[in-house]
């Protein structure tokens, strides 16, 4: 429904030609603003952006590849958008596998946990808050190379500390 039609339905009686023309003008302005809002919403997400694609790519440190179409550029951006800040260990392990590393990731909190009433008992190891965001990346098939270290440090959140161990 056009906004002019909606405006006409708000008034229970016909007011004449001048009023109808005013409502057509106001309705056209509202239609234009609705289109602007819709296109702005599309720019908020990397999967639908067009006008701001270059700014999104710059924000995520992606270079514009010569000859790449808009759909391909969006796909690369979306992959980077999904990867950055993901805290799933399985996600990081699959990334390592794509580079040819077999890894096991352990969290600092797996050896120690917070003391909790009803769960913990006297003598249990106590969790250190500094270990909460520490991950140890243990490679099983070869020593961690600069490619692996750089990739994981680029993609992990800033509060996460990664430690690397080789075979």
What would your notes on this structure say?
With 167 residues, the protein is mainly alpha-helical. It folds into two domains: 65 residues, no CATH class; 80 residues, no CATH class. Helices cover 46% and strands 10% of the residues. The chain contains six helices and three strands; from the N terminus they run H-H-H-H-H-E-E-H-E. The protein has a three-stranded mixed sheet, with helices on one face. Strand 2, helix 6 and strand 3 form a beta-alpha-beta unit. Helix 1 packs across helix 2. The longest helix is centred in the first third of the chain and has 27 residues. The radius of gyration is 27 Å and the shape is elongated. The mean pLDDT is 78.
Largest sheet: 3 strands, mixed
Q: Number of helical segments? A: 6
β-strand percent reads 5-15%
Total discrete domains: 2
Please give the radius of gyration in angstroms: 27 Å
Strand segment count: 3
Q: On the 0-100 scale, what is the average pLDDT?
A: 78
- Lateral strand order in the biggest sheet: 1-2-3
Helix content: 40-55%
Shape: elongated
Low-confidence stretches: none
H/E element sequence: HHHHHEEHE
Distance between the termini: 66 Å
Structural class: mainly alpha
Summarize the structure.
By secondary structure, this protein is mainly alpha-helical. It folds into 2 domains: 15-79, no CATH class; 86-165, no CATH class.
């Amino acid at each position: 429904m056009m906004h002019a039609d909606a405006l006409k339905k708000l008034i229970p009686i016909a007011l004449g030609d001048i009023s109808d023309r005013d409502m057509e003008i106001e309705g056209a302005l509202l239609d234009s603003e609705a289109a602007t809002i819709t296109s702005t919403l599309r720019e908020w997400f990397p999967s639908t952006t067009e006008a701001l694609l270059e700014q999104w790519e710059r924000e995520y440190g992606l270079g514009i590849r010569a000859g790449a179409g808009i759909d391909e550029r969006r796909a690369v951006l979306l992959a980077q958008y999904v990867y950055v800040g993901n805290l799933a260990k399985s996600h990081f392990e699959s990334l390592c596998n794509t580079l040819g590393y077999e890894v096991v990731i352990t969290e600092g909190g797996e050896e120690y946990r917070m003391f909790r009433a009803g769960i913990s008992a006297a003598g249990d190891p106590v969790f250190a808050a500094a270990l909460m965001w520490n991950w140890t990346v243990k490679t099983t098939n070869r020593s961690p190379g600069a490619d692996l270290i750089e990739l994981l440090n680029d993609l992990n959140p800033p509060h996460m500390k990664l430690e690397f161990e080789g075979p």
